[in-house]
Structures are given as C-alpha cells and as structure tokens.
Amino acid sequence: MKICVLSRTGRGGRHDPHVFHLGSRRHPVVALLDEWTEGEHRYFKVVVEDGRRFVLRHDPATNAWELAAAYGGGALPAAVVRI
To answer: Which of 2, 31, 49, 52 is most exposed by smallest CB count within 10 Å?
Structure first.
C-alpha cells in the first residue's frame, strides 16, 4: 500500500521516516526499532504514539514509500529509545 511519508536526515545523511499518513490519519514516528536493506529497498520498523508497530519500505530510486506490515499496539520495549 502506497503511503505518504515525511522524512528527516538520519544517520549517515540518509532519510529516515519521521511522520507518515494512512488515509487521513497522521502517525508521528516515536521510535525506530530496526532498519535494514533488501535488494534495492530500505525497510524501517517503527513505533507510533499509540504503540502500534509498522514496517515501512522505501525505494530510494523513485523515493516511493509503501506500508509493508502493521502490528498491534502495546507498550514500547524497555530498550527502545524514543526519537
């Protein structure tokens, strides 16, 4: 599912997701749990304010973002640093 993502410059000068929109809902990213590269795409596992977790996929060649996965809410793990 294509989504609108606002990013900011993260580590190494690369763009990390900061806020994304699903339909008319705005979801600020409060924590970045993981990031990795598969092929030509970058993936980000993020947490939003209500504790839900999402995997966002970015195609740097086209600057297109997609929702790759969504998980239920819950408390943030203790080791997660809020951004």
So the answer is: 2
In this prediction, residue 75 has a pLDDT band, given cuts at 50, 70 and 90, of low
Per-residue DSSP letter, 51: S
Nearest to 33 by CA among 58, 20, 21, 16: 16
pLDDT above 80: residue 15: no
- The tokens for 37 are 């590269």
User: Which residue ranges make up each domain of the chain?
Assistant: 2-71
pLDDT tens figures, 38-71: 999 999 999 999 899 999 999 989 989 999 999 8
Taking every pair of Cα atoms in the chain, the longest distance, rounded to a whole number of angstroms, is 35
